[in-house]
Amino acid sequence: MFIINCPYCGEREQSEFKAGGEAHIVRPKQPTELSDDEWAEYLFMRKNIKGIQFERWNHTHGCRKWFNMVRDTSNDEIKAVYKMGEKPPVD
Amino acid sequence: MLNYNQALPEKKSFQDLQIEEIKPIMKLIIRGKKREFISAFGKALNILLPTESNTSTQSDKLTALWLSPDEWMLFSNKPIDENTNDYDTEKLLNNKISKINLGAITDVSDQFVMINLKGNKIYELFQTGSPFNFNNFQNKKGAVIQTILAKIGIIVHNQDKNIVNLFVRRSFSQHLFSWMNDAASRL
Lengths: 91, 187
Hints:
A: mainly beta, two-stranded antiparallel ribbon, B: 24% helix, 34% strand
């Protein structure tokens, strides 16, 4: 259990949120030109790093907005929280 | 006469805590992003939508709760006529906002149940089932938050000191009410 600082609502407990997986995955511009392997790479393959990871989160039991979070997966330390569409912070 | 089924037929009283459903209350969800939308809303109803997070605004007849940067809940301060589910406020907003595509108005009067809690044990009750820290909230008149109580999503509005309005989806209301009665009986 940890506290997340929602960029819209302020500090709330983790159970109000849902994790939405890795952030900043760009959809290929021409999906029809991709091979099956490349398409599977885009659809299913995730980095799942131990360490600092960029993630999407949704405040389901609050404002219901999506936002991005930089989290250290080894100790759940939240490095930064920023809104959708904003540039990720450079460490 | 509408066939209106009350969600929570009884009123419960405990020491320093009273819980009851207030009905029928008009509730509307207002959505919009444009600046013209906020000013059109203000002109139509003479009430400004709160733009600061977790706050509310109030006029004689209506209260507007902040839910999200582009979403608000508007509800009537007093119970309305039981014989109709046609609301002048909704009609007015439909004409001034929905029809010219400034924003969206949705009637959620029957979707949400409004439960009024009174007494100085309210926050002790919330503490038993909510992860939210109510310490600052309870001293801030007009504060609004959405959180979880007994794993059920709720909207809480601090109406006045030791008076709180709680909104819960109708299908969850009976379970929440019996959970609150159980929790309140052992405070």
